[in-house]
Amino acid sequence: SVVIQECYVQNTAREYAKLYAAEAEPLEGFGEVPEIIPIFLIHRPANNIPYATVEEELVGEFVKYSVKDGKEVNFLRRDSEAGQKCCTFQHWVYEKTNGNLLVTDLQGVGMKLTDVGIATLAKGYKGFKGNCSFSFIEQFRALHQCNEYCEMLGLKSLRTTHQKQRKTTSTKSKNLPNSSTLKKMVPKKAREHRDFISSEH
């Protein structure tokens, strides 16, 4: 069921957020860490829709800190403390899982987040498959810009190493992989999106 999957995804992301908090909170100057609120599954046998989810109501301005397709630049995401810490959380999870998993759709009120998604590579990660297209991982890798919180956590820049090479013409042409060979490695799986998941429970 979609509802059960939604619970599973959000609570998995919540576990990563707890680990992130445990690492980030002790750092001097890091401050408050974003939290993914728990989502509970309830069974209502007498109801037409037997499963529903229950979560804390978030009161205040609801902001999407990371967007589905990664193309849109959201100023609240880029300029706010919560937005920057969400981007760092994405980078941290990406690095912790060796680029196999990414928490997407980070949104909520202030530092409290809900309705998140998870993208995994096609094969999944440790038996877990996300509910977002794995193209999100590629887009994140291409578009993420590290901020001061990434630096505090010592995360490695996702900018490719050839951009940092010294301008020696001899090595340049040899080291750059041909872009067409890179594309062939990406399986052309159906890029399904989360839009069909309804939130009415």
From TrEMBL:
Tell me which SUPFAM superfamilies the record gives.
Answer: Protein kinase-like (PK-like) (SSF56112)
GO (cellular component) term, any one:
basolateral plasma membrane
Give the molecular function GO annotations. ATP binding; protein serine/threonine kinase activity
Outline the extent of the Alpha-type protein kinase domain: 1-158
Asked whether the keyword Acetylation is assigned, the reply is: no
Stretches for region Disordered: 161-201
Q: What Enzyme Commission number(s) appear in the record?
A: 2.7.11.1
Q: Where is the composition biased (Basic and acidic residues)?
A: 192-201
The broad enzyme category this protein falls into is transferase
Q: Does the keyword Disulfide bond apply?
A: yes
Q: What is its main location?
A: membrane
Q: Which domain of life is it from?
A: Eukaryota
Pfam family for this entry, one: Alpha_kinase
Q: Keywords of this protein's UniProt record, alphabetized? A: Cell membrane, Disulfide bond, Immunoglobulin domain, Kinase, Membrane, Repeat, Serine/threonine-protein kinase, Transferase
**InterPro entries to which the protein is assigned, alphabetical:** a-kinase_dom, Kinase-like_dom_sf
- Give the function comment from the record: Protein kinase that recognizes phosphorylation sites in which the surrounding peptides have an alpha-helical conformation. Regulates cardiac development and cardiomyocyte differentiation by negatively regulating Wnt/beta-catenin signaling.
Q: What is this protein called?
A: Alpha-protein kinase 2
Q: Which organism is it from?
A: Machaerirhynchus nigripectus
Q: Gene of origin?
A: Alpk2
